Amino acid sequence: MSKISEVVQRARAAFNLGKTRPLQFRIQQLEALRCMIKEHEKDIVGALTADLHKNEWNAYYEEMVYVLEEIEYMIKKLPEWAADEPVEKSLQTQQDECYIHSEPLGVVLVIGTWNYPFTVTIQPMVGAIAAGNAVVTKPSELSENMANLLATIVPQYLDRDLYPVITGGIPETTEVLKERFDHILYTGNTAVGKIIMMAAAKHLTPVTLELGGKNPCYVDKDCDLDIACRRIAWGKFMNSGQTCVGPDYILCDPSIQNQIVEKLKKSLKEFYGEDAKKSRDYGRIINSRHFQRVMGLMEGQKVAYGGTGDAATRYIAPTILIDVDPKSPVMQEEIFGPVMPIMCVRSLEEAIQFINQREKPLALYVFSLNDKVVKKVIAETSSGGVTANDVIVHISVHSLPYGGVGNSGMGSYHGKKSFETFSHRRSCLVRPLLNDESLKARYPPSMAKMTRH
Amino acid sequence: MDPYADTLRRLREAFSTGRTRPAEFRAAQLKGLRRFLQENQQLLQEALAQDLHKSTFEAEVSEIRISESEIDLALRNLRSWMKDEKVPKNLATQLDSAFIRKEPFGLVLIIAPWNYPVNLTLVPLVGALAAGNCVVLKPSEFSRSTEKVLAEVLPRYLDQSCFAVVLGGPQETGQLLEHKFDYIFFTGSPRVGRIVMAAAAKHLTPLTLELGGKNPCYVDDDCDPQTVANRVAFFRYFNSGQTCVAPDYVLCSPDTQERLLPALQSAITRFYGDDPQSCPSLGRIISDKHFQRLRGLLGCGRVAIGGQSDESERYIAPTVLVDVQETEPVMQEEIFGPILPIMNVRSLDEAIDFINRREKPLALYAFSNSNQVVKRVLAQTSSGGFCGNDGFMHMTLASLPFGGVGASGMGSYHGKFSFDTFSHHRACLLRHPGLEKIYSIRYPPYSPRNLRMLLVAMEGRSCSCTLL
After folding, report:
1. pLDDT tens, A187-203?
2. What Cα–Cα distance (Å) separates residue B386 from each residue in A13, A429, B196, B391, B434?
């Protein structure tokens, strides 16, 4: 048996012992996780800096805070969520106990990714632990420093048998996918999402796939462009554009394209100075392959700002492209880099049509002071989630489910949705084993009972 | 030649026009469905009688009435289910609007089985239509007469630009599954469930799989054997055992077995008479293939009750087997027939171990006068659903989600759960376009001061820091 197989079997055996059932145990593990984060803040920041040139602020604000809040919320709500949920009874079941009983699924596999390597790996773990599962975690090898850190510190704080961390690349991931799990949560790209679902199909394992897409950002003529552009610039260029819910491209009327460019430039200079390369707040591309890929997307395009890069440091300047042809490569794949194409559309209808001709994205953004415009865009499109008049922030509301639709994914998590995703909600009906008198009517022979009108 | 491309394209185009979105349209479809049932009761009864020798009573209770009540529930609640679901906000989002929007997925494929061909086709259809989807229905080719009614009569009651019935066997279904759907709802065996999920994976199509398994029925020593026998027999032999949630096998002590056997015989005689073959209440096996399979199972262990069969009618007598080994075929596959094996265990612990060594079933039953025993079985096992002291009553309550876990399936439906299953739950946040000063803390350049403020806020946990 391979080492990975052993690790998974051990997790299953530990789960079968029933250790994770008591809420007290789960809360203890979550508190230990919280401790781990607090005691290793500096190490976490260090890993994020090494992997993605993130600074202290990014590490706290864009990663750790999410996880800490999730843990807080989970601990507080767990007793309520884990309790049996009585349901409405029918006439025939008045004397019975009818409720939904939440149970752990068993052994959950969480496969993380590299762009917010701490959050997307640990936040799902929080929900899986709270729901009472054993959790096998496989951080992304592309964010190597974080993977190594997690492999080191997690076993120091959490039960080692129940919550192992597996490191490695494609071979290890392929190996782990041969094992049987009771749920798999994967964050990453569409192509690999299909592979994961195929592997899961062999064992009839339900999956949550957090994938990606090209998140459209429609900017209406009727809006405060200063504010809109500042918010868009913030969301687009954070982590050097490597955010699955970041705005991927802008759709706007040709009459405001220039203003948008100017205001984006203004915000970018406020954020990162004249030369973003010198800014401590500006990220880097994860690796050379992605660096080459993103640089390639700019070829042949009309550059209104930026357009340069430095392979040695994997730096790509904040870039704005204008008059972009929808058929060009930059409009064919998720950019996942600091390049913002602006596409001109002549009407709201055209924008909506443009969006609907493409795969459903993970997020959709619309900027308008006109309530009707916002409502129309939402009503006539589909996406995982939406924020109107801002970007990204819908994913930070605990009570909103975070997930995709169509090519951008299936299933969701965060907050209570995490608890539900990682639980089996079992329907229960318990009646007394009393005399059958009241039930006799249902038994055959039934001829006497049947009169057709 | 792709026979489905045109139909699917047509349905997709209809969906993209927004036709199925208004509540009025959906309600009209549901009313059409209700009229279909009302105006074709006799036709459906006859079809079910032909396919499964289903009695008028069973057809009424487990097929027509259940479908009608789901339609009525959906009609009554449609507008409230369709409403945006407001969610609790925290301090930082007080001025914003946060809600979950329920949207149709688009083009839904429903693959239905043959054992309850009306119920298991129409109830999912209710959910898919209520949620605003366009639907392709693939009824089972095994329940031939019902398939005919569904293909020829049902479409007349629905808007055919948004609904189509597709016929065929495994090959045609395979071809159909090569196409992209936005949701797939499948009821059938785990083996085919795997094939459907693999096909869905190619297009990243989400799905609900209602599969099966061997539903254990634990009978405690502390019980009244006749009451237990009545209930177990009723639910086991209903539809001649061809029910995914029927008790598949009994686990009890040898002593209890002794008491159960005469009680089961008594129940069977009372229900089906001395010659069950001539009783109109008892169904028949769907096909020759399944009949042969079940006849083979009669050779396992020892026949304690029944055991007769008649190939010409695909009739199998209500049967109880004893002295069965775990390794015998009757304990290896889902029986799906009127055969009830009894396995002996020496204790509750042994019963629970036995259950947990196997795949998680769709349903699990425990009979005992002691509520403690019932609750213990519940707590120490897992299954799609559970009923203490009765058969599959839990699935008649629309307020309980109906679905499996592990090898018995994923996802659930019935009542509001159907509507939610066939909807995409879209997270929406409508941000206040002003208040820029409050948000400015999040913008670079980042200062140590901002970081200190954030850390203090994190410690105090006085507000949601992530929304600054």
Report:
1. 999 999 999 999 999 99
2. 25, 6, 26, 9, 52
Tell me what the mean pLDDT of segment B429-451 comes to.
84
On the question of pLDDT at A45 being above 50, the answer is: yes
For residue B456, tell me if it sits in a domain: no
Lowest mean pLDDT among B130-139, B430-439, B451-460: B451-460
B204–A444 C-beta distance less than 8 A = no
Band the pLDDT of B91: cuts 50, 70, 90.
Answer: low
A448 pLDDT higher than 50: no
A103 to chain B, any CB pair closer than 8 A? The answer is yes
pLDDT band at B468 (very low <50, low <70, confident <90, very high): very low
What is residue B459's predicted lDDT score, i.e. its pLDDT?
A: 67
For B310, the token pair is 């008649």
Instruction: Measure CB to CB from residue B385 to each of A57, A397, A426 and give the nearest one.
Output: A426
Across the interface, do A378 and B367 touch by the CB < 8 Å criterion? no
Provide the number of structural domains found in chain B. 2
Nearest CA in chain B to A55: B446
Residues in B closer than 8 angstroms to A204, CB to CB, are 190, 193-194, 197, 209, 211, 406-407, 409-410
The answer to whether A414 touches A401, Cβ cutoff 8 Å, is yes
B313 catalytic? Reply is no
Q: Which residues in chain B are closer than 8 Å to A410, comparing Cβ atoms?
A: 204, 206
Q: Model's pTM, two decimal places?
A: 0.97
CB contact under 8 A, A395 and B194: no
Is residue B243 domain-shared with residue B324, that is, in the same domain? yes
CB contact under 8 Å between A271 and B201, yes or no, is no
Q: Are B74 and B130 in contact (CB under 8 A)?
A: yes
Find the CATH number of the domain harbouring B190. 3.40.605.10
Q: How far apart are CA A430 and CA B387, in angstroms?
A: 6
Checking DSSP bridges between strand B107-111 and strand B183-187, what pairing results, if any? parallel
**Interchain contact, B429 vs A100, CB within 8 Å:** no
CB contact A301 to B (< 8 Å): no
**A177 to each of A4, A173, A316, B202, how far by Cα in Å?**
10, 6, 35, 17
| pLDDT score, position B467 | 46
Q: Are residues B380 and B301 in the same domain?
A: yes
Contact with chain A for residue B83, Cβ under 8 A = no
User: B97-104 and B423-430: which strand pairing?
Assistant: antiparallel
B431, part of any domain: no
Q: What is the ipTM of this complex?
A: 0.96
